Amino acid sequence: MESLETVIESASEIINMANWPAIGSIILPNVGGWVNGLYFAGQIRSEEGKSWYDNLKKAPWNPPKWVFGPAWTVLYSSMGYASYLVWEDCGGFTESSVLPLTLYGSQLALNWSWTPIFFGMKDYKLAFIEIVVLGVAATATTISFVHYNKTAAALMLPYLGWLTYASSLSYYIWKNNPKSEPRVTEIKDEKTQ
Questions:
Q1: What distance in Å separates the CA atoms of residue 69 and residue 50, rounded to the nearest whole number?
Q2: Which family is this sequence assigned to (predicted)?
Q3: Contact 149/86 with Cβ under 8 angstroms?
Q4: Which 8-state DSSP code applies to residue 65?
Q5: Are 145 and 79 in contact (CB under 8 A)?
Q6: Taking the complete model, does pTM exceed 0.85, yes or no?
């Protein structure tokens, strides 16, 4: 059996070998997704255990709810690693990395904003408009990545495909689920009757 000192030395070597910038780049986009998911998961459940989302008219091509978590984890990890590759090829945060990494950060902020618009505000039209703007920003990011690292741009392609798919889902929900407006009831004055 190895001594505790040997185990600590081995662990220390592994920690020193880890590529922390790459790991951080992969984790960062996931954090926003996890925070959104945890925050809004508790708000969409009804007392009967069924959420208002379950009652929406959804597209026939809408996947089961359980697909979204794994899909977004893979997509966030992929785009995060893509940003790392660009960061590395540009020599870190340098003049040449400003444009692609700013575009990346902007599209990531837009990505994280969709969930509060859709699940928090329940504004399906605004959510659709927002995801279209996100798609444009993600496309601009991908084009900018091509100039620095072709693998990074290729890692963004599944994300662009998913955004196209998600946009179709968002559009369908917007067009088939009118936002509920508060009902106005007539108040009768008892003195005039």
A1: 18
A2: Belongs to the TspO/BZRP family.
A3: yes
A4: G
A5: no
A6: no
